[in-house]
Write a structure and sequence with these properties.
single chain; 106 residues; mainly alpha; Arc Repressor Mutant, subunit A; two-stranded parallel sheet; two-stranded antiparallel ribbon; 41% helix; 8% strand; DNA-binding; MethylDNA_cys_MeTrfase_DNAb; DNA damage; WH-like_DNA-bd_sf; Methylated-DNA-[protein]-cysteine S-methyltransferase DNA binding domain-containing protein
Length: 106
DNA sequence: TTTTTGACTAGAC
DNA sequence: AGTCTAGCCAAAA
């Protein structure tokens, strides 16, 4: 069983909550989520928290991880990976246009 | 325990 | 538009 301290758990939960607040059809960057979660400068932790947000772990609810992209508006996965394809598909379901791995700005 | 990795980023070329 | 660097720091190796 993985050990994690109380402070980390709270940070993760604040990140998950913040991601859950992104409206459908919108996107936010890892850095923006970190800032909004009260963790400035810790964008990497957002990626880590999302990676560790799989069902069953910490009883977290479904999190719209696909609405989080990097600061350049690009998807942070290799183009050929299944998870990349899934992120694009989920964004397109929400009418978000993705071109060349980059979310189209408006 | 130490080192490396990584869903990151701002700034400098 | 790319490439590099330094800063970030929890997780995995």
């Amino acid at each position: 069983m993985i050990q994690i301290n109380r402070v980390m758990k709270e940070s993760y939960q604040r990140i998950w909550q913040t991601v859950q607040a992104i409206p459908a059809g919108n996107v936010a960057s890892y850095g923006q989520i970190a800032d909004l979660a009260g963790l400035p400068g810790r964008a990497r932790l957002v990626g880590t928290a999302l990676k560790n947000s799989d069902e069953g772990r910490f009883q977290n609810r479904a999190i719209p991880w696909h609405r989080v992209v990097n600061s350049q508006g690009k998807i942070s996965f290799p183009r050929q990976s299944p998870i990349y394809q899934q992120q694009v598909a989920r964004l397109q379901e929400e009418q978000v246009i993705v071109l060349n791995g980059k979310v189209k700005l408006r």
